[in-house]
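ugh ok so i messed up the first submission bc i forgot one of the chains. this is the corrected input, ALL of the components this time, i swear. 269 residues overall. if the numbers dont match what u have on ur side tell me asap before i send this to the collaborators (the ones from the other lab, u know who)
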Amino acid sequence: METNLTSATSATDTKLAIRTRDLNLWYGDFQALFDVDFDVKRGLITALIGPSGCGKSTLLRSINRINERLGYVRTEGTVEVLDKNIYDDDVSMPQLRKDVGMVFQRPNPFPLSIRDNVLFGYRLHTPDAGKRSNKSVEDDIVEEALRKVMMWDEFKDRLSIKATGLSLEAQQKLCIARLLPVKPTVILMDEPCSALDPEATAAVEELLWQLRGEYTILIVTHNMAQARRASDECAFMLLGKMIEHTETERMFITPGLKETADYIEGRYG
Ligand SMILES: Nc1ncnc2c1ncn2[C@@H]1O[C@H](COP(=O)(O)OP(=O)(O)OP(=O)(O)O)[C@@H](O)[C@H]1O
Ligand SMILES: [Mg+2]
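and heres the new structure output, hopefully the right one now
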């Protein structure tokens, strides 16, 4: 049978890292997401854009279920991560937290050394971690993670300094580095550069391109220039709905809908 490329979004298509269907979400009585169907391709960087309050963070947080911590959130529909609906009863939350890492607006390293930050998740998920015999294993993990985020050369002789004293750029890179040892499939980033100056923003964007391919990155940004520079695909939301999702260049050159054009040209607040 001929492969139909236009229907290459079936549940068994491993090219997709994330696939939501009919995703609806309520905070109490307030509905924040409406029938969101969203496919995120594996190994790419996808930017999520839209005016303030349109539901970008809500959608992001439904992909690792941290919305639920609030207690008054109700979610309907499916969110598959690598073909598995993460809202199924048999989903292990520790495993989900390993598979889907998250980076926030303000860097939030632990008040520990650089080394202990990088090893934090690994130790949490590895029963024998912390044993003396593991020192060389841990050394390798720290080096690999810090190399990936381009911090190794600068910090290799200062791994014991406290992470909370670093520059914001280094703190944010470290928050990305500490996700890597548990080998996530997806890294969610909610405006990861909003606390950074332009130079640090450029450094983090460069890092995103380094991680592209090995990880699937979904990044929320208010910065249209950043969305254009730093993503393969771009998804535009408005009032809790997914309006348009396409290749980034195409979205910026020939947006398919007037709403998208209005937003990217700055006609919304
Ligand atoms: N914890 C919450 N409790 C109740 N309502 C919430 C909560 N978080 C968000 N909302 C509401 O849900 C809607 C979507 O909010 P969300 O934070 O997802 O938007 P956003 O696109 O990330 O906005 P911003 O660009 O300002 O970060 C908004 O109307 C918001 O007021
Ligand atoms: Mg937000």
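quick check: The first helix runs from residue 56 to 62. that seems consistent at least. The chain has a mean pLDDT of 91.
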